[in-house]
Every structure is written in structure tokens, then in C-alpha cells.
Amino acid sequence: MKVSTTVIASNFRTCKNIYKVNVSVLKTESGSNYTLETISFQSKDYTVEGLLRIPSSEKKVPAVVLLPGATVPKEGTQGLAQILSGMGYASLGIEQRNRGGVNPQYDFGLFKDGKEPVEHKMVFDALRAVDVLKQDTRIDANRIAVIGESNGGRFAIIAAAIDPDTYLNSLPPRKLVMMHSVNDSIIPMELAENTFRKAKEPKMFYKIVTGNHGFSEGMRVPLEIELRLMFR
């Protein structure tokens, strides 16, 4: 299933349990108004690496998990991470298994053999990243969301509701926000609209006239508006 360029599946304030995750800080970079940490943490049979960017603040800040599109490394999340930091939000962009790629035939074979599909583990990785943010004392654990671009948008929905389309009804009371460029040459607008129609309120869809496939400047304002509403 294909979904919109950018998906925000909010908000993990309804998730009360926090799983303790051992986090290793591999590298730290300090800027004039932010701290950027390269971190790693264990998620089942995979060690996830991520870039944790936290804006300078005297109080706890809201945060988002950033899931890049297929073939995009964690470094590819940092353009959006910088924008979010300027809005006052921390972010954790993760290195997805197989760089976000999914092999349905291989996963189906695993499923038939009673083994866990790789895609399920990738969703688990995203949820584990939420746990990492929740336990960080610099983060407001009640204000965490997930943002995904392209195929990362699929995992954003799955992480918040279990499975896109089939279980979209499980999202409420978490809000679904979809942004899709009218110029997207990879995923047609009608596919994104079809997914959106299956979702229940609360939800919001933005048709963006800038860019092609992926985050673009036209998404900046609605992104800021929707995150402000989610984290109020």
C-alpha cells in the first residue's frame, strides 16, 4: 500500500507505559541553539542508530520520531529536523532496517513459516524510538508524535494504529495528518486521498502545490500548525 508523502500520526500521550531502553551516545555536537547526538539502542535483533536533535530550552520540549523514505539514511531526516528545532521541537531520526525497504514476498514467506516479518520489526523499531524519547528527561513524555515521509509514512500510521488502511479505525483519538504534493510523480494523489477517506476523525489532509515527492517548503506552515495543535 502506498500513502502520502508526509504523514503525522499523533500523539503518544495516550500510551502510559514506558519501556526502559538502554541508549548509547556515540557522538555529540553542540550548536548555538541545539544539541545533536548520534545515539544507538537495541530493538529486538537490530541495533538502531539515530540522530537526536534537541533545541536549547530551560524546560522540557515536545518531540517527534522521524521516519525517512525508502533508501534514505538517518542523515536524510536532518533538513526537516532543523526546521522542527526552529519551532521548538526535538526530533529523533532513525536508521531504518534495510533503509526502509520492504520485500513483501520474503515477509510473507516468514509469516507462513511462523516467523516475524521484517516489516513488523521495523514498526517495532519506530515504537522503540518513541520509548527512547519518553524516557529522556529533556523531553515532554506527554507530547510525542511520529512523522514519516513516503514509505516512512506507512510506518508512521502502522506505529500509531497497527496497520494502514485495514486498521485506520484504531488511530482515534490520535490525529492523522496527511500532506501530499499535487506534483508527486511517484504516488498519485488519488491513492493518498483513498487512504485518507478510510480514516476517521480527527484527521486533516493538505494538498501541497510545492515540491514533488517528499517534504517541501509548502508543508512547513501546515506542519507547524498541526504540531502546535497536537501538543497544546
Fraction of residues in H or I helices: 25-40%
Q: Label the structural class.
A: alpha/beta
Strands in their spatial order, largest beta sheet: 2-3-4-6-5-7-1-8-9
State the domain count: 1
Supply the CATH superfamily name: Alpha/Beta hydrolase fold, catalytic domain
Shape field: globular
CATH class division: Alpha Beta
CA distance, first residue to last residue: 32 Å
Q: What's the story with the biggest beta sheet? A: 9 strands, mixed
Write down the overall mean pLDDT: 89
| Helix and strand element order | EEEEEHEHHEHEHEH
Poorly predicted runs are: none
CATH topology annotation: Rossmann fold
Taken as a percent bin, the fraction of beta residues is 25-35%
- Strands, total number: 9
Please explain how this structure is put together.
- 29% of the residues lie in helices and 29% in strands.
- The chain is of the alpha/beta class and 232 residues long.
- The protein has a single domain (6-230), classed as 3-Layer(aba) Sandwich (Rossmann fold), CATH 3.40.50.
- The chain has a 9-stranded mixed beta sheet with strand order 2-3-4-6-5-7-1-8-9, sandwiched between helices.
- Helix 3 packs across helix 4.
- The chain is globular and about 45 Å long.
- The two termini are 32 Å apart.
